[in-house]
Specification:
heterodimer; A: 233 residues; alpha/beta; Rossmann fold; 6-stranded mixed beta sheet; B: 395 residues; alpha+beta; 6-stranded mixed beta barrel; two-stranded antiparallel ribbon; 13 helices; 56% helix
Chain lengths: 233, 395
């Protein structure tokens, strides 16, 4: 899509689950726009709906009502296959628990999204190596996750999120399993990638120190946006 | 995702659970093994019987009373008489081409030796009609039949059992208390299904009728001059006999017709054996299905991750289907190897015949791939349909 399209746009988004016959309103009408290149923190207590919001923005989940546009694509109009393609090419994910394949080397973990893009193996390896070098892990290519520290594992995950050249990065509690010093390292890398590559970053966190890295902060509570420090004009 | 990639991932997954993969494969291995071995035995039986029937020659016609669709279906009481030999001799124009048979199992003794054998009453034309070779001595002649002589030609096993290390020619054997003088010994006929075919004694048909107290003969056999016009000859034989015995039916069948019937029966046998073996293959397949469901459950988080990174439903489906098919294919190849090996051992070291035909390993291979697809598709679809949000949350 055109560079002018917002990275994310949510209009009147609700998400209702049925759990054991009871309706749970995780999102109750969210309007949110995030522009290309922004670094936004979504903050809120657990159960506030911030994870659901991230899943909906990341095309892992569909809204019950309302419209979600990712890089200009109306998600509700896309088939499952087209959604998979959008996740593969446009969005990069970083998870709290790293989500690395344990039996797989760092370089093959990073190359995984490219498998689903049909990139050939030598080219995949080359791109994965470059991505790992960009996060300072050029010397850990053949290590498996169990041979890496927590900070290193999360850096592998960041390399995996970025290897395909996404327009947006969704990070769900990226420092939740890391100590303070390592957290700062990881946040430094995310900020640098945001600035250097112009990738929009959406950071879901409940830690104020992590949220402080973002120029814009969106507070979510009870499925609604309670406060937005700097909505785009 | 490319097929090569799916193959690599599947191989990795199987390697990560070596013991489990092997145990699952054993079910498939046993199933395929059983298919290959049992089909080989069925085929071996078919080939052995066919070569035996074929050995009789294409221009041999068996004449039996009744409607015959398969061999050995003659009615209890045969109307055929000994002088039908002359009758059919006139039909063929050569009396020497007509043999006769009346037979019964009996105990044959000599001194303290005793052996149970098939005692056949025949005529002097038998060696020519049935291509039987007398190794020592000679077969009886027409005059022996006419005068009801008590002479006998022994199968090689009968001779060896009753006269170990002794020349049997000129000696006496006793059948049902009647003494016979041994005038010949047949050449070795070998075995069929491990059954010795040399446990037989031929005596003149006239002597046999008195011995068994019967007037009829069981069957006649005619050697046609050539296979040309053999159908016409069969027809004339039946017409002639049915003209003589009004109200009775007769059948004249050739070796080719018997081969067709026997072939159908033995094909059915092979098919039944294959089906029985197929059941164990099916059980192996259920094992594969079961272990694939476990594998999907164990790797729910991995599936969620792959979907988040852009795997489509069919990518995940392909990955797990490949894993199931790889499992059964490797099992299938091992099963074929073991099966072919077993069949060769059976052929060499057991009385059972076994013959590996090209299509049974090919079929077994195709079936094991098919079993992988069939039993892998349900777990693979389950994997493909997993909701990534739920899958990623799984511990």
């Amino acid at each position: 899509m055109s560079a002018a399209a917002p990275a994310f746009e949510a209009i009147g988004v609700t998400r209702t689950y049925r759990m054991d016959g009871v309706s749970v309103h995780a999102l109750r009408g969210v309007d949110l726009r995030i522009d290309p290149g922004e670094l936004v923190a979504i903050i809120g207590p657990s159960g506030s709906g911030k994870s659901t919001l991230m899943n909906v923005l990341g095309c892992l989940d569909r809204p019950t009502e309302g419209t979600v546009r990712v890089d200009g694509h109306d998600v509700s109009r896309l088939s499952d296959t087209e959604l998979a393609r959008l996740r593969n090419r446009t969005i990069g994910f970083v998870f709290q628990s790293f989500q690395l394949l344990q039996r797989t080397t760092a370089v093959d973990n990073v190359a995984l999204p490219l498998v689903y893009r049909g990139v050939r193996r030598p080219e995949r390896k080359r791109m994965a190596r470059e991505a790992l070098e960009a996060v300072g892990l050029g010397h850990r290519l053949q290590h498996r996750p169990s041979q890496l520290s927590g900070g290193e594992q999360q850096r592998v995950a960041i390399a995996r999120a970025l290897v395909g050249g996404p327009r947006v990065l969704l990070a769900d509690e990226p420092t939740g399993n890391l100590d303070t010093g390592t957290s700062e390292d990881v946040m430094g890398i995310i900020e640098r990638l945001n600035v250097e590559l112009g990738v929009a970053v959406v950071l879901v966190t409940h830690e104020a120190s992590v949220a402080a890295h973002a120029r814009r902060q969106v507070a979510v509570r009870d499925g609604l946006i309670e406060h937005d420090s700097g909505p785009p004009s | 995702m490319r097929a090569a990639e799916a193959f690599r991932v599947a191989l990795d997954a199987l390697r990560a659970n070596r013991l489990r993969s092997l145990l699952t494969m054993i079910g498939v291995i046993i199933g395929v093994w059983a298919v290959v071995v049992l089909v080989a035995i069925g085929q071996g039986a078919r080939e052995e019987v066919e070569s035996e029937v074929a050995g009789l020659g294409a221009n041999l016609i068996f004449v039996v009373p009744g409607e015959v669709s398969a061999i050995g279906a003659a009615p209890a009481t045969s109307p055929l008489q000994l002088d039908d030999v002359d009758l059919l001799g006139r039909v063929t124009g050569n009396r020497q081409s007509v043999a006769v048979l009346v037979s019964s199992g009996a105990s044959v003794r000599a001194g303290s030796g005793e052996v149970f054998a098939t005692v056949s009453g025949t005529n002097e034309n038998t060696p020519l009609v049935f291509d039987r070779e007398v190794a020592r001595g000679e077969y009886f002649r027409g005059t022996d039949v006419d005068t009801r002589r008590r002479v006998a030609v022994l199968g090689s096993t009968v001779a060896q059992t009753l006269f170990p290390g002794v020349e049997p020619l000129g000696r006496q054997v006793t059948v049902n208390g009647v003494r016979f003088r041994v005038i010949g010994v047949f050449a070795d006929q070998g075995t069929t299904f491990g059954v010795d075919r040399n446990l037989e004694v031929h005596v003149p048909v006239t002597t046999a009728q008195r011995l068994f107290d019967v007037r009829r003969v069981d069957a006649l056999a005619v050697k046609a001059p050539s296979t040309e016009g053999i159908e016409d000859l069969q027809e004339r034989i039946v017409d002639t006999l049915e003209a003589r015995y009004e109200g009775q039916t007769f059948s004249a069948v050739t070796q080719t017709q018997i081969l067709g019937t026997v072939g159908r029966i033995l094909n059915l046998l092979t098919l039944i054996l294959a089906a029985i073996a197929g059941i164990s293959l099916l059980v192996g397949g259920v094992g594969v299905s079961n272990i694939m469901l476990v594998s999907v459950r164990e790797r729910t988080r991995e599936i969620g991750l792959r979907k988040a990174l852009g795997a489509r439903q069919r990518d995940v489906l392909l990955q797990f289907l490949t894993e199931a098919v790889l499992l059964t294919t490797i099992g299938g190849v091992l099963g074929i190897g073991l099966g072919v090996g077993t069949a060769l051992l059976v052929e060499r070291y057991s009385p059972l015949p076994a013959s590996v035909v090209w299509w049974s390993p090919v079929l077994a291979f195709a079936v094991s791939v098919g079993v992988g697809v069939f039993f892998g598709v349900a777990p693979a679809r389950r994997a493909g349909r997993l909701d990534p949000v739920v899958a990623l949350r799984t511990e």
